[in-house]
Amino acid sequence: QVRLVESGGGLVQTGGSLRLSCSASGNAASISTMGWYRQAPGKQRDMVADISYGGSPHYADSVKGRFIISRDNAKMAVYLQMNSLKPEDTAVYFCYAAVRGDPSPYWGQGTQVTVPS
């Protein structure tokens, strides 16, 4: 079992920045890929960014050049620095972690990010 707790969401104006954090506990030593998804009202949950244990990042096209994902394996944490925020970035952001030997990823409870139009 892995428990993920996100923090750092909030309300920010267009063009502003936020930094999301996600801390893992439990069987966190077996975590491989970590990342972030988001879900806007009435829409499906979409991948935002992920990062391998070795630090290789991947981004959705919609956030490339604006968001930066990073992780600290010693702290079992993943971060999402979000810059140049737009109203279309408004969503609940979910942290996830893939665990070696486990077919299903673990999810955090989500944190709301709101960028008013």
Percentage of residues in strands = over 45%
Task: Output mean pLDDT.
Answer: 96
Which sequence of SSEs, written as H and E, runs from N to C?
A: EEEEEEEEEEE
Rg on CA atoms, Å: 14 Å
Secondary structure: number of strands: 11
In terms of per-residue confidence, which ranges show pLDDT below 50 for 5 or more consecutive residues?
none
What is the count of helical runs? 0
Distance between the termini: 39 Å
Helix content range: under 10%
Q: Any idea what the shape is?
A: globular
Largest sheet features: 7 strands, mixed
Structural class: mainly beta
Describe this structure in words.
- With 117 residues, the chain is mainly beta.
- It is 0% helix and 54% strand.
- The protein contains no helices and 11 strands.
- It has strands at residues 2-7, 10-11, 18-26, 31-39, 45-51, 57-59, 67-72, 77-82, 91-99, 106-107, 111-114.
- The strands form 2 sheets. Strands 2, 4, 5, 6, 9, 10 and 11 form a 7-stranded mixed β-sheet that branches. A 4-stranded antiparallel β-sheet has the order 1-3-8-7, with no helix packed on it.
- It is globular and about 40 Å long.
- The N and C termini lie far apart (39 Å).
